[in-house]
């Protein structure tokens, strides 16, 4: 038996069940990484609090997926790279742009370039952005509030990326083409 079982709504600790159900509703299924998180009510509760804010913020869902994919690549989380590649494609991100992010470069669309570049820089520099880093994002048409919002997206994806790296959940078959 794995030290990190994939919980279900029924097997998760009582304190995790509401968060598990919310994620199952949001995705139409419970991602395996969320099932492993559910063992810790603190971890799954932290993710669900950020999840609602991230997906209810000012970025489009396509921009969010580019941020999440960039973070997954930068954090070396294979499960999350496959998952967010598939979700980015579902959001209409061009395959060449998804491939660019996966290879460590940037998408061709200027706003997606700006969000991807900021996400990678934020992680690589551990939040110590230069004025040039910030200006590049702001000059692409984003606001200071959105720059700070990227930190929330990064926090949410760090929870998922690190959990996937620690627990190594199996990748769902529907995402295997993106592995």
UniProtKB/TrEMBL annotation:
Domain of life: Bacteria
Protein name as catalogued: Carboxymuconolactone decarboxylase-like domain-containing protein
Species the sequence originates in: Methylobacterium symbioticum
Highest classification ranks of the organism: Bacteria, Pseudomonadati, Pseudomonadota, Alphaproteobacteria, Hyphomicrobiales
């Amino acid at each position: 038996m794995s030290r990190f079982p994939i919980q279900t709504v029924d097997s998760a600790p009582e304190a995790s069940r509401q968060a598990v159900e919310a994620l199952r509703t949001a995705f139409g299924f419970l991602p395996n990484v969320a099932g492993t998180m559910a063992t810790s009510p603190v971890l799954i509760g932290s993710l669900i609090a950020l999840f609602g804010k991230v997906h209810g913020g000012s970025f489009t869902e396509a921009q969010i997926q580019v941020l999440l994919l960039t973070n997954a690549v930068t954090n070396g989380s294979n499960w999350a790279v496959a998952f967010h590649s598939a979700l980015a494609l579902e959001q209409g991100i061009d395959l060449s742009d998804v491939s660019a992010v996966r290879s460590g470069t940037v998408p061709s669309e200027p706003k997606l370039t700006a969000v991807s570049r900021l996400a990678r820089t934020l992680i690589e520099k551990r939040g110590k952005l230069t004025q040039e880093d910030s200006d590049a994002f702001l000059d692409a048409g984003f606001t200071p509030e959105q720059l700070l919002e990227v930190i929330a997206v990064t926090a949410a994806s760090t929870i998922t990326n690190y959990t996937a790296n620690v627990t190594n959940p199996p990748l769902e078959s529907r995402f295997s083409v993106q592995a």
